[in-house]
Amino acid sequence: MTRFLLVLLLIIPAACENAAADRPGTQLAARVNGTGISAHQVRAGAPGGAEQALEKVIDRELLVQKALAAKLDRDPQVVTSIENARRQLLAHAYLERAASAASGSTRDEVRAFYAENPALFAERRVYRLRELLVSAPNEMIDVLRAEAAKARDLEEVAAWLRLRNAKYSAGGLTQPAEQLPLSFLPQLARMRAGEIAVFATPLGASVIQLVHAEDAPLTEQQAAPLIEQFLAGRRRLEAAAAEVKRLREAATIEYVGEFKRSN
Question: What backbone phi and psi angles, to 5 degrees, belong to 214?
Fold first, then answer.
């Protein structure tokens, strides 16, 4: 159902694409019930090899044709979903353009980031961990930390959670430092095998037991591409946030009805 709804959201763009595909001089890749599919649609429509991408675009076109025949493009719910998706795409495109002007990282910025984050680079480790992802309110986190501090094994923490009917999932993972949350690293870097730590997360807590850690340092030269990518992403987020703030400050925004705010 989710995939079908996603297809419905593409009805209007797909119709425009097909009109363009039928223009003289357009390089066609296929025709579906007489409707042309351009080579451009194939290249832009799906990842993977050209043949696989073409088949996915054909599948989409078949579904879109059926949806249009059933007049689903006139269904109020579908119309609302299409308009919301269109506006979301436009907003995203504008932010992408606004953020693309952000300048690249300097060598000094890369060097400073490398020095400020030894756990990611100079003292980088690959961690093998056992983890409990716990759904818990904030007030339970300190109690969970106290219980984890007494436990000798993660299973003892899991048993404690079961007694309290707390929701959790258990798993294991092996990941380098840069693939773990940055806020976890200072404590993880100090832990020894077998030790347990509790980290707050947006949905509750992550209870982690360190199984093994192996040193895998990166030199500044090796780390530079990763740092530049991270700094570029951070700069783009900052530029996007600044642009939204500027637009809000310049706009006239009035809250009405149930959303009206008191001064």
Answer: -120, 130
- Tens-binned pLDDT, residue by residue, of the chain (263 aa): 444 444 444 444 554 455 555 555 568 889 999 888 888 888 876 566 788 888 888 999 999 999 999 999 999 999 999 999 999 999 999 998 888 877 778 899 999 999 999 999 999 999 999 999 999 888 888 899 999 999 999 999 999 999 989 999 999 999 999 999 988 999 999 999 999 999 999 889 999 999 999 999 999 999 999 999 999 988 988 999 999 999 999 999 999 988 888 76
- Between CA 247 and CA 55 the distance in angstroms is 42
Q: Measured over all CA atoms, what is the biggest interatomic distance in the chain, rounded to whole angstroms?
A: 75
By residue count, the chain amounts to 263
Two tokens at 35? Answer: 């409707």
- 77-112: burial string, b at 16+ Cβ within 10 Å, e else: ebeebbeebeeeeeeeeebeebbeebeebeeeebee
Tell me if 185 sits within 8 A of 177, measured CB to CB: yes
- Three-state DSSP at 123 gives coil
For residue 145, with 0-12 CB atoms within 10 Å meaning exposed, 13-18 middle and 19 or more buried, which class applies?
Answer: middle
By the 8 A CB rule, do 134 and 170 touch?
no
Predicted TM-score (pTM) of the model is 0.60
Closest to 122 in 3D by CA, of 235, 222, 253? 222
Side-chain-side CA neighbours of 258 within 13 Å: the count stands at 0
Distance separating alpha carbons of residues 10 and 29, to the nearest angstrom: 19
